[in-house]
Every structure is written in structure tokens, then in C-alpha cells.
Amino acid sequence: MTQELKSIPKWILIVSGFFSLLGLIVSSTLIFSPQSALQTVDLNAKGVNYLIQMWAARQFAVGFIFGFATLKKSAPMLTIAYIFFFVMNIADTIIGFSQNDNGLIIGASIMCVIASTMLYFLNRRTK
């Protein structure tokens, strides 16, 4: 394999780093200031804090996975991260449909397109 095939384009690393930061920021917001992210949710209701912590853990995992793969500049790791991200956003799209939440449907669908585009360019790079 030549060096050209081994290197990942900088723009892919930038987008992946952005997803890492986004996941870590959302996670810390949910942990330290959930009322700013969840304005329409009764934070005193039973079980809500547990769900917020689970969501924060999911976002932290996404941020950590993307950050680690980006720092390692590993195409296989980034591929796995984007597959995970794609599947997660498909699930979010389904949830959006079940809850009649157009914002979630649109946002998750856009993230699916971005993830599939990134997977395409990561795979194309190795051929």
C-alpha cells in the first residue's frame, strides 16, 4: 500500500474531530446543565435524571470514539465509528417518526447522509 492510500484526507479528520467535540459538549451539557438542553422536560419527574445520564453517557461514548479514532488517524476505526453513528441516527429517525418530531427526523436524517458520505469517502480511499 502506498503512503497516499494510508493517509486520511484532512477534511475527514476535521469533520470527525467536530463530531467528537459535539458529542463531548452535548454530554457535558446534559450532565452539568440539563435544563438548558431539555427546556420542555420536567427534570423532577421520577426516572428522568436516569435517562438524562444514559443519554449523556451515549453522547460521551460517541465523542470519545470519534476523538480516539481521529487522533489515531485510523481509517478502520473511523469506519466503525461512522457505522455506529449511522445506525444510531437511523434509530433516532425512527424515534422521530414515532414521536412526530420533525426536528429529530430532519436532524437525524441529515446526520445519516453525512455518516454515509464519510463512509463512502473512507472506503473509496482504500481502493
Can you offer a commentary on this structure?
- It is built from six helices and no strands.
- With 127 residues, the chain is mostly helical.
- The protein folds into two domains: 9-73; 74-127.
- The termini are close together.
- Residues 1-5 have low confidence and may be disordered.
In short:
The chain is mostly helical. The protein is 82% helix and 0% strand.
List the helices and strands and how they pair.
Layout: H1 3-6, H2 10-32, H3 34-37, H4 48-72, H5 75-98, H6 102-125
Helix pairs in contact: 2-4, 4-5, 5-6
Key phrases:
single chain; 127 residues; mainly alpha; 2 domains; 6 helices; globular
Q: How does the major sheet shape up?
A: none
Order of helices and strands: HHHHHH
Number of E strands? 0
Radius of gyration: 16 Å
Helix content: over 70%
Head-to-tail CA distance between termini: 10 Å
Number of helices in the DSSP assignment: 6
* Unreliable parts: 1-5
Query: Taking all residues together, what is the mean pLDDT?
Result: 91
Strand content: under 5%
Structural class: mainly alpha
From the spread of the alpha carbons, the general shape counts as globular
The number of distinct structural domains comes to 2
